[in-house]
Design a protein that fits this description.
8 strands, Aminopeptidase, alpha+beta, 3 helices, four-stranded antiparallel β-sheet
Length: 150
């Protein structure tokens, strides 16, 4: 496995295509959710990718503070159906959190998580901070991760 984190303008056309393809495969087709994935946030973000055998198997978008929320955020967290059950989701989130610390320090993080992933994010010390809300016909909650050892 090869982990890569790049700013948008550093992505190759092949990397960008692989990102969009994986996001569409899971968020649009698998979850049967029609939504505007190209939301004009990608250009301001860092893109965490895990490649295996030249195939993108995991991805997350690091969103700087002031874009989605006043806090730094993580979004579009996705693993390839072919890689599920391997622990890649845990590795992806750990690598993403470590990268955020190296970029910005131990800043508060806010995410909009699909409700069924609540326990997954709680395992990384995220805490629910909102009631359930519906986004693109899927139940979501807002969650925060705050470091106490600043």
């Amino acid at each position: 496995m090869i982990w890569i984190c790049k700013k948008f303008d550093e992505l190759t056309p092949r990397e960008l295509y692989a990102i969009m393809q994986l996001r569409n495969e899971v968020f649009v087709v698998e979850q049967n959710c029609v939504f505007q994935d190209a939301d004009n946030k990608d250009q301001s973000c860092y893109h965490m990718m895990c490649m295996q055998d030249d195939k993108l198997i995991a991805y997350a978008r690091i969103v700087p503070a002031g874009i989605s929320y006043s806090e730094t955020s993580i979004g579009r967290v996705v693993t390839s159906p072919s890689a599920r059950g391997t622990g890649i989701g845990n590795m992806l989130l750990r690598k993403t959190l470590d990268t955020i610390i190296s970029l910005y320090g131990k800043v508060p993080l806010k995410i909009g998580a699909q409700l069924y992933l609540k326990k997954f994010y709680e395992s990384f010390a995220f805490k629910q901070t909102s009631d359930i809300y519906i986004e693109d016909d899927i139940q979501h909650i807002e969650m925060m991760l705050e470091y106490n050892d600043k």
